[in-house]
Amino acid sequence: MLTEPKRYLNSLRARLRLDSSKSREVLSELYTHFEDQVEELQGAGLSEEEATKIAAESFGSFATVGDELNEVHNTSNWVQTLVAALPHILFALLFAFNQWANIGWLMIIVISTAGIAVYGWQHNKPTWFFTWLGYALMPLLVVGLVLLQKALGSNTLTSSWWVWLLLVMYFPVILWLFIHILLQVLKRDWLLGTLMALPLPPLVGWFITAQWRHGLLGGGESGLRGLEPWIALSLLTLAGIVVLFNRFRQRSLKAGVLLISGLAVLIFIACSSAGSVGVLKLVFLASIMLFLLLAPALLERRVANQEDDPWDFLFEHRPRV
Among the three residues 72, 95, 120, which one is the final residue of a domain in this structure? Predict the structure, then answer.
């Protein structure tokens, strides 16, 4: 492989925010065009070194080319967009029709969500898959919160020793799984990490709000009673945000609409509380939601965006003009 195009394509690959198959396809096509242009320039009498340099310059800045490719290839069609928004809609319907405590419906949706997430993981992780992945991981977090609440709510340590034992065994495994998945996502794009984490702000926000109201688990299901319409509205709002995210081309707009999701959930919490949740509590919730939404962007700095795959794929089934 020529040194100059390899250097250029290596920088470009680090800039791309595409799934692995699409990234390989784009890089392979660019390398083919590069080779063709070098051959054409050599045919005009230039040396290989001169032809390679001129061909590299003709492609333009790798940053500009990478951003343009990201915009072109990261816009979903309407079918993909609706599939991406569907998990938010399904869980919104559970709360809208007060079926969130119905084990039958809940298990059907949770199992279906997990199955679709596994399918997407095994098929190059398309953009629509990340919303399903987020909801597939949420039950694991909910179980942890339930165990923690049960342990803290016990009157004596001796009566809850088994719960603490489960916590000690459960959280390291779940933490390892979350970190492993997040690192894989961040290697591609922190925006997709935030998209995956989109269910977290409403989960945490409504959980804390219910605790402030009545005690979510201490008072049975009463903590969420009366909040169902607001929870459903917040999840439907997230579905709309996912639609905008998938249809926007510019990364700045995608990032902006994801950050708005936290504000939307906060507004619904404030409206549902009818003044029972004070300003300080809302500021506390806002800080948590902002951290959850920005954490992928902060963590991405520590994760290499560039894939470690060799360049052999450039020479396999390369398109020819």
Answer: 72
Q: What is the 3-state secondary structure (H, E, C) of the chain?
A: CCHHHHHHHHHHHHHCCCCHHHHHHHHHHHHHHHHHHHHHHHHCCCCHHHHHHHHHHHHCCHHHHHHHHHHHHCCCCHHHHHHHHHHHHHHHHHHHCCCCCCHHHHHHHHHHHHHHHHHHHHCCCCCCHHHHHHHHHHHHHHHHHHHHHHHHHCCCCHHHHHHHHHHHHHHHHHHHHHHHHHHHHHCCCHHHHHHHCCCHHHHHHHHHHHHHHCCCCCCCCCCCCCCHHHHHHHHHHHHHHHHHHHHCCCHHHHHHHHHHHHHHHHHHHHHHHCCCCCHHHHHHHHHHHHHHHHHHHHHHCCCCCCCCCCHHHHHCCCCCC
Query: Which single residue is written with the structure tokens 């800080």?
Result: 287
Q: Which ranges of the chain have pLDDT less than 50?
A: 216-221, 305-308, 317, 319-321
Residue 304: predicted pLDDT: 54
Q: Are residues 83 and 63 part of one domain?
A: no
Answer yes or no: do 108 and 20 share one domain: no
Q: Residue 316's pLDDT is what? A: 52
- Residue 306 within a domain: no
233-274 pLDDT tens trace: 999 999 999 999 999 988 889 999 998 988 888 888 888 876
Domains in the chain: how many in total? 2
Name the token pair of 286: 């806002």
Tell me, what's the pLDDT at 321? 43
Give Cα 166 distance to the centre of its chain: 29
50 and 132 share one domain: no
Could you give the C-alpha distances from 191 to 131, 147, 184, 257, 317, in angstroms and in order?
12, 31, 13, 11, 31
Residue range(s) defining the domain that contains residue 159:
77-300
99 and 67 in a common domain: no
